Amino acid sequence: MTLNRLALVLSILLLGLGPGAFAQESGEVSVRILDEPIDDLRAYSDAVLSDSAATAPTESMNVVVGRSNATSDVLLVPYYEVDRRDPQGANTLFAVRNETDREVPVRILYLTVVGAVEQQVQELTLAPHATRTVNLRDVPGLPADASGIARGLVVLGAVGTTADSSELLSGDFFFVDPETGYATGNTLVNMSLDDSGNEFCAEWGTRYLRGGGFGGSSIFRFVVDEPAGARDIDPPTAVGTIYDEAGTAIQSFEIRTDAYTFDLRSAELAPESAPFGSLSIRFPATRGALLVEHSGFETLSIAFKAACRDQVE
Fold first, then answer.
1. H helices of 235-311, where?
2. What is the mean pLDDT of the chain?
3. How far apart are the C-alpha atoms of 134 and 154, rounded to whole Å?
4. Helix locations, the chain, DSSP H
5. Residues 228, 60: contact at Cβ < 8 Å?
6. How far apart, in whole angstroms, are the C-alpha atoms of residue 190 and residue 75?
7. Strands 74-83 and 261-265, how do they pair?
């Protein structure tokens, strides 16, 4: 790593794009169920890329946060949600820990779901082996939608060091709804510019729940590096296939959005006739991360990262 990486290890968080750069993007997500199940997601992805009359991808997240090949990796809170109207409503917290025996300056960038819109920056210094917990409800200026919900993602990394952030820092995040007693969480996502430790993949696999005797359901939380597919003539952001527990492909779908982060429920992707099974997801024109949250009996939940299938033949 060269000294050029010093200057930013998190120049990442230099506001290379001014506020409002993506002001025209909607952040909406659409799902289209396909007529027939897709047997080969990779072949289908190649086909939709070659058949698209035009491509209009949103700019890469690296561009949004001002990163280049000279900068360090970063860690992500892949999705946050805060109910701004109800102090007892849904909220998100995250923690970042200094894994070293020296002080580490950290820079944190808060993004909306469509990127560099009204972004907020926070800087702090972590003492050796110290942990800092951030309550998103206490972060000023996070824009909320008409329903009073603020949504987006958080990018953070170490400043002024030649080491990658993932070598110095670790962390986690969790969602909580005090009114219902509901909570779930996961570890921070590593978004490297190279393949060492990068948790962004082109293809993912996971199980899902929809119904059953305990009211099971799954939420799929996506982070997309370059979310192409906002228009029908563009390649879709993602394509997927649902399999029943016997491994039979029973339904496929396309996802279109200009959002860098979003979530979908199993009821939006899987048929009611198959309460349990699995799905494969592929990003035809980019890479991303997929986290999954399973729940039952309304308030019980568990979350984890889906399996990267890029090396699976």
1. 266-269
2. 84
3. 11
4. 4-8, 41-51, 61-64, 165-168, 266-269
5. no
6. 5
7. unpaired
pTM for this prediction: 0.85
pLDDT digit string, tens, across residues 107-149: 999 999 987 665 788 999 999 999 999 999 999 889 898 999 9
Whole-angstrom Cα distance, residue 172 to residue 291? Answer: 13
Rg (CA), the chain: 19
* C-alpha–C-alpha distance, residues 172 and 246, integer Å: 34
Phi, psi of 98 (to 5 degrees): -85, 115
Strands (E), the chain: 29-33, 74-83, 91-98, 104-112, 115-126, 131-135, 149-158, 169-177, 182-187, 189-191, 203-211, 216-224, 238-244, 249-257, 261-265, 276-282, 288-296, 300-305, 307-308
Q: What's the pLDDT band for 25 if we cut at 50, 70, 90?
A: very low
For 243, half-sphere exposure in the C-beta direction (CA atoms, 13 angstrom radius) is 15
One-letter identity of residue 70: A
Question: Is residue 305 within 8 Å of 294, Cβ to Cβ?
Answer: no
Q: What residues have CB less than 8 Å from 35, skipping those under 6 apart?
A: none
Query: In the numeric block, which tokens belong to residue 245?
Result: 């527990």
Gap between the Cα atoms of 227 and 256, Å rounded: 8
d(CA 130, CA 146): 38
